[in-house]
Design a protein that fits this description.
This is Sodium-coupled monocarboxylate transporter 1. It is a multi-pass membrane protein. This protein has about 625 residues and is mostly helical. The chain has a domain of about 425 residues: Sodium/glucose cotransporter (Up-down Bundle). Helices cover about 65% and strands about 0% of the residues. The chain has 23 helices and 4 strands. The chain is globular and about 75 Å long.
């Protein structure tokens, strides 16, 4: 006997009308799906070719790496969203909502905090410095090549996480090839790795920053169309928004996160707000990908506005994916057949299963898979552009390649893109052969680096007393603590949310309504690991900084920080920012410096000194 609910749709009546239990789908790809897949990939390639042949034809590092600092507002804003919302969002987020309720949706509160802090503080810190690499800031702040290189190396080590997270990780919701089980191996994993790696490298190598940003904008459109189409269809299948809400209420999916401080709790408000804020601040505020895009805009006002638009886009994509999870769950709850509890689809396949069963119109499965590939490509191309930029700017140009011409420097940057592309493909293939436990261990280690990277920037921008020695030591303390937190996640397993699931309507040996144990892989520990390791790294660096305070220009601290330190009476090593680089201000300052000698010096001599300073 199935469990009947007082909703706008009675799933017992639906089953009676159908005259049979729900059967497991065996639908597969149509030739039209493959055509759409290929066309979507060709569009990305064509954008790279276009920017390779137009404008300055990518012949200078200024154009190739930074888009001549004249990028347009809307494409950069969309690119910010697309770069950090990968296939994890499209597959993993709806699955999390389907299995564990809407608690994870509240991480948008922390996301909002991260965007606001980035717009109010970090853009005002980084943009006036005219940075190409975010780690140039560490060099300026600490006058230390060592601190700069440590930050760069930490960022380069994180590159494999993008490839693993964007393409394959069997044990997580991180790749498009998870649909292969449902689609009779329509899209093999090896083909996905090759397509993402080769095509992402191709258009990034040819078109540089301009191609990456514009392809991201196009891919974000494909992602949004795919997600919204699934959401609309699932809502219609469930009988409307009211029915979707009611069914999720009946199965306890509509619950607020608790306020517990226990890091093992899957959904806690502290984790969703504070942990999420730190995690996304490291991505949106201080990562190379974000700073590179923000500094490619023509003005600080545009950079700050791009974060406002990016936040709106972030909300739109995440909310659409939350609706997909709720609507797909209500569709299967309405017919009394939970496909996950019945064993028909694992965590990674819930959404692709629905697409193949209910939206198997020739062309649409191909469109949805294109959306997944677009998400993976945006992450891959962003990783390649960022890695090549910091490798050239921070490691090669200051040391081994000082005397290269502009043309040779641009060719070197392109070679770096190709090299990192090959390395990424090799890492992806290797991870595809490893077990899920090994991949999770590697991801935990790489995730432990995110917090210290943010901590290093916070140390530099918040504490004038911090010096190069503290900046060089603190990341290692943060990484060690982050790994310790990650190791704890193995010893103390995450508390899984056990919500009701019904399989009485499934044509399977399983029957009855029961509390299903699920294994959705949203890493709550990533938030705690990044938060605590960032705090530990910052504190250790601050401690070592008091050993040898160094002079610090106020413009190398976050806005308002110098004023706060002065109020506390700790402004001994603060310096005023350098004057504006123009003749009028130089002449004015020179005249002021000579005022004390006006009575002793001939006015003509004073005038000559002012003119000489202006020439300098």
């Amino acid at each position: 006997m199935c469990r009947c609910l007082t909703t706008s749709i009675n799933h017992c009546e639906l089953q009676a009308q159908n005259g049979m239990a729900l059967e497991r789908t065996s639908n597969s790809f149509h030739w039209a799906d493959y055509v759409i897949l290929v066309l979507s990939l060709l569009i990305s390639c064509s954008v790279g070719i276009y920017f390779a042949l137009s404008g300055g034809k990518q012949k200078t590092t200024a154009e190739y790496l930074m888009g001549d600092r004249s990028m347009r507002l809307v494409p950069v804003s969309v690119s910010l969203v697309a770069s950090f919302l990968s296939a994890i969002l499209i597959l993993g987020h709806p699955a999390e909502i389907y299995l564990n309720g809407i608690g994870f949706h509240f991480h948008l509160l922390g996301v909002t905090v991260a965007y606001v802090l980035s717009a109010v503080l970090f853009v005002r810190l980084f943009y006036p410095l005219r940075l190409t690499s975010v780690f140039e800031y560490l060099d300026k702040r600490f006058n230390s090549k060592l601190a700069r290189c440590i930050g760069t190396i930490l960022s380069l080590i994180l590159m494999p996480e993008t490839w693993i997270g964007g393409q394959l990780a069997q044990s997580k919701t991180k790749s498009v090839e998870q649909s292969s089980t449902v689609t009779n191996n329509a899209v093999r994993r090896e083909y996905v790795i090759a397509a993402c790696g080769i095509i992402g490298t191709f258009y990034t190598l040819l078109g540089g920053m301009k191609a990456v940003v514009w392809v991201d904008a196009i891919q974000a459109g494909i992602m949004l169309i795919g997600v919204l189409s699934v959401a609309i269809k699932a809502v219609v299948d469930s009988g409307g928004l009211a029915s979707v809400w009611q069914l999720n209420m009946d199965y306890d999916r509509i619950q607020l996160p608790s306020w517990t401080l226990d890091p093992r709790e899957r959904h806690s408000m502290w984790g969703m707000v504070l942990g999420s804020a730190v995690y996304w601040l490291s991505s949106i505020g201080v990562s190379q990908a974000a700073v590179q895009r923000l500094c490619s805009l023509p003005s600080m006002k545009s950079a700050r506005m791009s974060l406002v638009l990016g936040l709106a886009g972030h909300f739109l994509m995440v909310s659409a994916c939350t609706l997909v999870g709720m609507a797909v769950f209500s569709r299967y709850a309405s017919v009394g057949c939970d496909i996950h509890a019945a064993g028909w689809a694992d965590t990674n396949q819930i959404i692709t299963y629905y697409v193949m069963e209910r939206m198997n119109v020739p062309g649409f499965p191909g469109l949805f898979t294109s959306a997944l590939l677009a998400a993976a490509l945006s992450s891959v191309s962003s990783s390649l552009s960022s890695a090549s930029t910091i490798a050239w700017t921070d490691l090669l140009r200051p040391y081994a390649c000082k005397n290269l011409t502009e043309g040779q420097a641009t060719v070197t940057a392109k070679v770096l893109v190709a090299l990192f592309g090959l390395i990424g493909i090799a890492i992806a293939y290797l991870a595809a052969q490893l077990g899920g436990t090994i991949i999770q261990a590697v991801s935990t280690f790489l995730g432990a680096i995110i917090g210290p990277s943010l901590g290093l920037i916070l140390l530099a921008s918040l504490f004038p007393s911090a010096n190069w020695f503290g900046a060089s030591i603190s990341p290692f303390a943060g990484v060690a603590f982050g790994i310790w937190i990650g190791a704890g996640s193995y010893a103390n397993k995450k508390q899984l949310v056990k919500l009701a699931a019904n399989v009485t309507g499934c044509n399977t040996l399983a029957a009855g309504s029961f509390a299903a144990t699920n294994s959705s892989e949203t890493e709550v520990y990533d938030y705690y690991s990044s938060t605590t390791s960032s705090a530990v790294g910052t504190e250790k660096g601050r401690h070592f900084g008091f050993v040898e305070p160094m002079p610090v220009r106020e413009d190398l601290l976050l806005p308002g920080v110098a004023k706060l330190w002065r109020l506390c009476g700790c402004s001994g090593n603060l310096l005023l920012p350098p004057p504006a680089d123009d003749s009028e201000n130089i002449a004015k300052q020179t005249e002021l410096s000579l005022n004390a000698d006006i009575g002793k010096t001939d006015p003509l001599d004073i005038h000559l000194q002012i003119v000489e300073a202006t020439k300098l």
